[in-house]
Amino acid sequence: MRIAIVADHNAVPMKARLVDWLAARGHEVDDRGVHDERVVDYPVLCEDLCRRVLSGAADTGVVLGGSGSGEQMACNKIRGIRAALCHDTFLAGIARGNNDATVLVMGAKVIAPDAAERILEVWLDTGFRGGRHAERLAQIAVLERGGSLLGD
Ligand SMILES: O=C[C@H](O)[C@H](O)[C@H](O)COP(=O)(O)O
């Protein structure tokens, strides 16, 4: 797969480890930075990565922060992106299988690097189940466009 990855200053070592992990498994990795631990603002990194995913330049994206919370918020402000903050393999499986999430977010201050690898493995190995989950994604898309599901 073609995988874009970004990290803010809190997650540079975790990003380096995941880049190596992905490359060792034959994935094409697009490391969009940052590459040192000078303080940066994560929203611009999130936007850059999400645009790569939306354009089709990347099949999926990985965003790393300290907690990952703000990064998830930033990514999900971009129309068409479904970003999921996953701190265990259960969440990763649900995010992919039920939510067809396109951007994985993790927090380097929350999980250990080996846990991040296991989460990423589940992320890459889990396919979208469709069915009723597809109907829910269509409903989320209505909300994203400013519509309502309330039927008034
Ligand atoms: O939710 C936000 C992120 O996980 C950031 O890594 C974090 O907020 C950055 O904060 P600071 O600039 O204090 O390291």
What binds here, in terms of ligands, is: ribose-5-phosphate
Report on the biggest sheet: 5 strands, parallel
Q: N-to-C SSE series?
A: EHEHEHEHEHH
Describe the oligomeric state of these chains in a short phrase: single chain
The dominant shape is globular
The total count of helices amounts to 6
CATH topology: Ribose 5-phosphate Isomerase B, Chain: A
Provide the residue-averaged pLDDT: 98
CATH level-4 homologous superfamily: Sugar-phosphate isomerase, RpiB/LacA/LacB
What is the level 1 CATH name? Alpha Beta
- At CATH's second level, what is the architecture? 3-Layer(aba) Sandwich
Measure the end-to-end span: 43 Å
Number of strands: 5
Number of domains: 1
Describe the strand arrangement of the main beta sheet, using strand numbers. 2-1-3-5-4
Structural class: alpha/beta
Low-confidence stretches: none
* Beta-strand percent range: 15-25%
Helix content: 40-55%
Pfam families: LacAB_rpiB (PF02502)
GO molecular function: ribose-5-phosphate isomerase activity
EC number: 5.3.1.6
Enzyme class: isomerase
